[in-house]
Amino acid sequence: xxxxxxxxxxxxxxxxxxxxxxxxxxxxxxxxxxxxxxxxxxxxxxxxxxxxxxxxxxxxxxxxxxxxxxxxxxxxxxxxxxxxxxxxxxxxxxxxxxxxxxxxxxxxxxxxxxxxxxxxxxxxxxxxxxxxxxxxxxxxxxxxxxxxxxxxxxxxxxxxxxxxxxxxx
Length: 169
Known about the structure:
Elements: E1 4-7, E2 10-13, E3 17-18, E4 30-33, H1 34-39, H2 41-46, E5 51-55, E6 71-78, H3 85-96, E7 102-107, H4 111-119, E8 124-125, H5 132-136
Parallel strand pairs: 3-4, 4-5, 5-6, 6-7, 7-8
Antiparallel strand pairs: 1-2, 1-8
């Protein structure tokens, strides 16, 4: 059974595989750890498939800068409830590096965090399967956000209105 996740506000089957899951499927979109990417970069670049990489909390986003254009997905791993560096990684990827691909939250991801993760730019979320349906509603918990942020991970109806744009009814 494929892994399910929240992507762009919808519950979907994940079309990506981690390296251990993709054995034997040379065409599967592949998610690597930073170490897997760095240790065999030339091998991955030679393959004709979509690639993604997951940053651990200790990784600096700039580590991947030479290869941003090669990645269709970048993930940030959350080790526990008090781990917040993934929020900063997401903002840096979206705002400083203008990353427009899938930005995925992995690891310790819970319903209460989704709205704030989305405001930082995440647009996909790996959650425990038992929590995914209930967590889906978290993206619409708040109807308006007044702090400036990167709302790319939120459904269009919840994104912060930019100065100079008309309000909608």
